[in-house]
Each structure stands twice: as structure tokens, then as C-alpha cells.
């Protein structure tokens, strides 16, 4: 099963997960320090949707933004 929206083509993206520790300067600390950066994957929120196309029911996997526009 692909993780891509069948309407807009939205798919998974790779982002950085940044881990910080410490107290912010504005709160009286010495500042937040970055202690680790790792890559992670954000996947689109795909939902099954049944759509009538020419009198035939077709099941599609669409993201929630497209689902709102189709209903």
C-alpha cells in the first residue's frame, strides 16, 4: 500500500527531530542547548473514501485535506 494521496499526490517527507535541554534565557536560564538531531519521517494522514465515479463506487486513499474538499 503506497503512502501517497491519490488526489493531490502528497507523500511522506523527511524532517529533523531536534532534542533540546536547559532553561530559556527569557525564563532566567543560560539558554536552550541542542543535544541531538535525528532524521524522522512525517507521513500524510490518509483515510479511505468511497467515491461514485460514473455510477461506479471507487475506493480511494486520500489525505484529510482532500477528503474535506471531496465531501
Short note summarizing the structure:
10% of the residues lie in helices and 49% in strands. Strand 3 and strand 4 form a beta hairpin.
Question: How big is the Rg?
Answer: 20 Å
Strand content: over 45%
Mean pLDDT: 95
Helix content: under 10%
The ordered H/E elements are EEEEH
| Overall spatial form | elongated
Q: What kind of sheet is the major sheet?
A: 2 strands, antiparallel
Distance between the termini: 23 Å
Structural class: mainly beta
Low-confidence stretches: none
Supply the number of helical segments: 1
Q: Would you count the extended β strands for me?
A: 4
Strand order of the largest sheet: 1-2
Keywords:
71 residues, mainly beta, two-stranded antiparallel sheet, elongated
Provide an overview of this structure.
By secondary structure, this protein is mainly beta. Helices cover 10% and strands 49% of the residues. The protein is elongated, with a radius of gyration of 20 Å.
Amino acid at each position: 500500500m503506497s503512502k501517497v494521496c491519490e488526489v493531490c499526490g502528497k507523500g511522506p517527507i523527511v524532517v529533523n527531530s531536534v532534542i533540546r535541554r536547559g532553561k530559556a534565557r527569557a525564563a532566567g536560564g543560560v539558554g536552550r542547548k541542542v543535544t541531538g538531531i535525528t532524521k524522522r519521517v512525517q507521513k500524510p494522514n490518509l483515510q479511505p473514501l468511497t467515491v461514485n465515479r460514473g455510477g461506479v463506487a471507487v475506493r480511494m486513499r486520500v489525505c484529510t485535506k482532500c477528503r474535506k474538499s471531496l465531501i
